[in-house]
Design brief:
Residues 122-218 form the Acyl-CoA oxidase/dehydrogenase middle domain. The protein has helices at residues 7-24, 28-33, 39-47, 66-79, 81-101, 104-116, 232-268, 280-308, 314-339, 349-360, 367-379, and strands at residues 121-124, 140-144, 147-158, 167-176, 179-188, 194-199, 210-221, 270-271, 274-275. It is of the alpha+beta class. The strands form 3 sheets. A 4-stranded antiparallel beta sheet has the order 2-3-7-6, with no helix packed on it. A hairpin with a 2-residue loop joins strand 2 (140-144) and strand 3. It is globular, with a radius of gyration of 21 Å.
């Protein structure tokens, strides 16, 4: 058993760490508190090749693997988790679904710019009445006069309002071969009847746009259908499995940032005549944080490695997402405690990470959903 990263992994991780430290981190306060979208940072991540790592060079990808992508997501999230989750939505979910299930024409049309970071994607599954119960969605597609016509409403859609987002991968119900099925479409934002609705104001990720999406007789070409119409829901579940690994990596990045900031502060902050790091209570908090982070990192790397090997990884992806998102909240809470009153101030990054930690327990499947997945695997005889 070899836990060493190979040279290509070390190079891409070091590149992402330098970019995060030198370019993103100095703007952490701005990203946490301003609604201004950092288009320049997104473009630079694309120029560095971060968005297309696991895809074939013929489509503009880097020809790398999923371990590399997730090392990048962790490194970026160490400076700003919002940008880490942007890579999740665009690369792990949208680009992957088009790459795996799209026609050659769809791949040639969309993948080069997505892989280059010139454009980003959005993923529309959640609706007002279907969150964790994704199969209960009501948006409907009807095929008429050689086109698909969509009607319905989506909510909490990340990226859709951004200027550099030209497409959304959409789930809708349609009658296929006499049966009601969940079908997947590539919906260009320029389509008639495609309406980007109100913006949501979240407790964190201020610079990450999240919007309502409305389809009012939205007309899509016959070639907008993505993948097998009989297996649209299964397609979504398969890419969301990767999304869980990506969120786990982002959580590890955020948790590591909490440890970094708390450790530096504990060495500098003097109380009762000595740095608070010298108090055993503080060292215990920091030690527990370090152990939890290492465990979460190992979980997401194992899940990504299994994906690269083409092996089942449902259990590992759900476990990584569940554990990493919950230890993020724990590490953020301990970091705020170490900072004391300063930890409640926006001037210190741990305050923003603490707020964001709750979001990470909900996106890409709540902690409760992950436990349901794990429970079902155990009931079916899943063994480690």
């Amino acid at each position: 058993m070899n836990f060493d990263l190979d040279e290509s992994h070390r190079i891409i991780r070091a590149t992402a760490q330098r970019f995060a430290r030198n370019v993103i981190a100095p703007r952490a306060y701005e990203l946490a508190t301003s609604a201004e979208v950092p288009y320049d940072l997104i473009a630079k991540m694309g120029e560095l090749g971060f968005m297309g790592i696991p895809f074939a060079p013929e489509y503009g990808g880097g020809g790398g693997d999923w371990v590399s992508l997730h090392l990048v997501i962790e490194a970026i999230s160490r400076a700003d988790m919002g940008l880490g989750t942007l890579i999740d939505v665009t690369t792990s979910v949208v680009t992957q679904e088009i790459d795996r299930f799209g026609t050659e024409a769809q791949k040639q049309k969309w993948l080069p710019d997505l892989c280059a970071g010139k454009t980003i994607g959005a993923f529309a599954l959640t609706e007002p009445h279907s969150g964790s119960d994704a199969g209960a969605l009501k948006t409907r597609a009807v095929f008429e006069d050689g086109e698909w016509v969509l009607n319905g409403r989506k909510q909490f859609i990340t990226n859709v309002a951004l200027d550099n987002c030209p497409l959304v991968v959409v789930a809708a119900r349609a009658e296929i071969e006499g049966q009601d099925r969940i079908v997947t479409f590539i919906a260009p934002k320029s389509s008639p009847g495609f309406i980007v609705g109100r913006s949501y104001h979240k407790i964190a990720f201020a610079s990450g746009a999240t919007n309502e999406l409305v389809f009012e007789n939205c007309r899509l070409g016959a070639d907008s259908l993505l993948g097998d119409p009989r297996r649209g829901f299964a397609q979504h579940l398969s890419v969301l499995e990767t999304g869980r690994i990506s969120i786990a990596a982002a959580c590890v990045g955020g948790a590591q940032a909490c440890l970094d900031h708390a450790l530096a502060y504990a060495r500098e902050r003097v109380q009762f005549g000595k740095p608070i790091f010298e108090f055993q209570a503080t060292q215990f908090k920091l030690s527990d944080m370090a152990v939890k982070i290492e465990m979460a990192r190992t979980l997401y790397l194992k899940a990504a490695w299994l994906k690269d090997q083409g092996r089942p990884h449902t259990f590992e992806a759900a476990s990584a997402k569940l554990y990493a998102s919950e230890i993020l909240e724990q590490c953020a809470s301990e970091a705020v405690q170490i900072f004391g009153g300063n930890g409640l101030m926006e001037d210190y990054p741990v305050a923003g990470i603490y707020r964001a930690s709750k979001i990470m327990q909900i996106v890409e499947g709540t902690s409760e959903v992950q436990r349901l997945i794990i429970g079902r695997l155990l009931a079916a005889g899943k063994e480690s």
